[in-house]
Backbone:
């Protein structure tokens, strides 16, 4: 059996310079990563996870709220949702190893985190939710041929998961529900807002931060530069958390 990795992100590891007039970029301790179980190949929480966690923590969660962590990975954001007051949290991911990690991370902390394997249709079927958090794949990539990399596939424009998610967001949300969605400006934040607003949702920018390239962007740098997503001399990208509500 593959061995598990115990991950610990040291406070400050993901910090970077701040963008003025938005909530301060979260310190590393915004995420409950101490003792986080992460099975091989599962996404290690990064600056995007951290930024979204800070927005969840600053969001008022209604009593008895049901929450969804779509694209859960280790389940780290499901843990934040549960600790912020959600009564039940559903963690959804395509990856078995991710779900196994998320299930164990919830169980050892005795938090109300359930898991379901699947994508957006699974999330819609089990909804609606008062609060939805999503950190989906969003970094543009060349066509994926290796099945083991499928779960990182954001498509050549970065929108393979973002477009259907934004289009179907209204179906995920309870009447007073809200979606918190993080992605990079390189994957077209305006397009996300257009799609969400076309579905009758109001959108706003809940937070943004400029962060050094993480491992996903660094691993695709040649493709990203070649296709104009990243300037040749760039070393960092801007992350945005969108809030969408009725
Ligand atoms: C960027 S990681 C985020 C993980 C975690 N939420 C975090 O912030 O650390 C994206 C996750 O989405 C999953 N994923 C990719 N495509 C998906 C899809 N269409 N539906 C559900 N999950 C998907 C991947 O397996 C991966 O665990």
Residues:
């Amino acid at each position: 059996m593959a061995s598990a990795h115990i991950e610990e992100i040291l406070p400050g590891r993901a910090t970077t310079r701040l963008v003025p007039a938005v909530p301060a970029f979260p310190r590393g301790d915004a995420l409950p990563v101490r003792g986080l179980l992460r099975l091989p190949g599962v996404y290690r929480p990064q600056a995007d996870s951290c930024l979204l966690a800070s927005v969840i923590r600053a969001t008022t969660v209604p009593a008895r709220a049901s929450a969804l962590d779509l694209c859960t990975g280790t389940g780290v954001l499901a843990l934040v949702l549960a600790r912020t007051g959600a009564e039940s949290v559903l963690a959804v991911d395509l990856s078995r190893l991710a779900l196994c990690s998320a299930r164990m991370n919830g169980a050892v902390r005795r938090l109300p985190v359930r898991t379901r394997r699947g994508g957006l249709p699974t999330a819609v079927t089990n909804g609606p939710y008062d609060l939805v958090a999503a950190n989906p794949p969003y970094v543009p990539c060349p066509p994926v041929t290796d099945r083991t990399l499928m779960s990182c596939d954001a498509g050549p424009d970065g929108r393979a998961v973002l477009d259907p998610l934004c289009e179907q967001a209204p179906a995920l949300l309870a009447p007073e529900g809200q979606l918190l969605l993080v992605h990079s400006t390189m994957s077209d934040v305006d397009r996300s807002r257009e799609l969400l607003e076309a579905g009758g949702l109001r959108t706003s920018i809940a937070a943004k931060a400029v962060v050094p390239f993480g491992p996903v962007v660094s691993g695709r740098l040649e493709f990203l530069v070649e296709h104009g997503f990243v300037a040749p001399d760039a070393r960092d990208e801007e992350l945005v958390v969108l809030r969408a509500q009725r």
About this structure: Helices lie at 47-57, 76-83, 96-108, 120-125, 162-172, 189-198, 215-219, 221-226. The chain has one domain: 5-245.
